[in-house]
């Protein structure tokens, strides 16, 4: 054990933005002072089995030393740093929310191997080694095991029980840590976890590269140079424009990002663009494939509108359920990436959910889970799936996910932009001209980067473009509730040798839909003033709103295999089948169900040149127009399958 030093710490009465809303939010200085008052901070370098030492900050309730109290340990492991460093420097909050501070645990924050103050070499989403022949064979499961073993033996006042949690990349480390877990690790919560970088998380979605998010992430997330050290201030990237569509289009082909900006000095970016298929690099990092026989209780948390890792929690939960499931629970709410951990969660973008969903989750779901498994309080009667049903705006509990009551039902593309419950008899097709030099934007406004609420955005801007096909049902005469994945089965052709086919499932509001974000004025006949209490500064009319419910790109050359791409034969019909990630949504009576199909979604995804080639090596001349056809009608026409609960 290497004890660096010790200092004092504490718990706030309320933390701004981290728990239920308060009348007056404390300042950062007040929150730090409260932590200092109630907790004592220690810093350790914890030895791993191969001799590498990992840095950890440990916050212990002061009554451990004054009254002999004992507490379980709650830990997170991160590649993002555990600042502030120094035993006399304190965090402005501890744990997943301020509720945990008041409940009291021993809180541990650890820099993972090779990051900031921890020794060793960092590997992004470090591959798991299922077979280990000696102490030199390490991965994130062994580092977690060794850390837990050391903590329960050396940290004063601990009960011998440990919980592990993490959001996003730390969610990956929580997932890895529950494989071959130390017996003291009894509860784990991967939250918005990175589960498979290629299959639907941060980097690739069905073979399409998530351009804007990856670029903006890697201009700041870089390898450490030299010995362990605290983080350095990051300089903002000089985009030179507020318009991301303009920036990425003027950047040109993907190869230009390396030449203009990264200059072969950012290995994480290079790793992304050098491995465009689901090869050994990505498969070795697919942590979900190792989740067999998990022993700790598990609560997997995700957001229906997670703009970074929408597939991770769903894939992870599904795999565990099929492979000796632990005491596990899936929690899904109407949140963007990590939105459950902050704010009220009563709305996202222009969509109102009618209640404080994030506050509810933190108080009624997250805290009780850890309190039950770490402290033994509560009845422990958790459902298999605890999900927020959008559209109806209510929490639902199920004993399986998807629920057995949700039955597969087909919606068929039809002539004249119809979406039909009956299979059209007459075969036909729609077509559009896709121009990669004039790609379809992913939102209808000017902004840089990826809008955190884009997955609830109004799609009316796209519906008016000639390169977007639009299909919609008649006005619904009853509620249609969908639980589970959305299956896409398209019959398509292209005049090129490769093309993307992006599919969006949309809820179309009636023209007279009430706008809960923009309530009527107090005095009838007096218009609401933008910026007044309850009135957004730039309100979007909700009447006729086309709310994106779920959307995914698909790179056509991967239609038969993500491992081995194949070109299209120009003009020859072929088939694309894939799933959109799960939803729990009710299309209300009076609404319509819409499907939009397009071949670019920029700069959410990179542009497809519409030629069969390695896209990161494409040059400007390779980007050509292509005529895309979508076939419908007859026995093999295009369709969308929903799991509908009667």
Structural description of this entry:
This protein is α+β, with helices and mostly antiparallel strands. It folds into two domains: 2-196 and 285-398, 3-Layer(aba) Sandwich (Rossmann fold), CATH 3.40.50; 406-515 and 540-645, Sandwich (Jelly Rolls), CATH 2.60.120.260. Helix content is 18%, strand content 27%. The chain contains 13 helices and 27 strands. The protein has helices at residues 28-38, 63-66, 98-103, 140-154, 169-177, 211-218, 244-251, 255-262, 267-274, 280-283, 312-322, 357-375, 460-463, and strands spanning 2-6, 9-10, 39-47, 53-61, 71-78, 106-111, 158-167, 185-191, 204-205, 208-209, 297-303, 328-333, 347-348, 351-352, 385-389, 394-398, 406-413, 419-420, 428-434, 469-472, 480-494, 502-508, 546-552, 574-587, 592-598, 626-632, 639-645. The strands form five sheets. Strands 1-3-4-6-5-7-8-11-12-15-16 form an eleven-stranded mixed β-sheet, with helices on both faces. Strands 17, 18, 19, 21, 24, 26 and 27 form a seven-stranded antiparallel β-sheet that branches. Strands 20-25-22-23 form a four-stranded antiparallel β-sheet. The termini are far apart. The model is unreliable at 1-22 and 529-538 (pLDDT under 50).
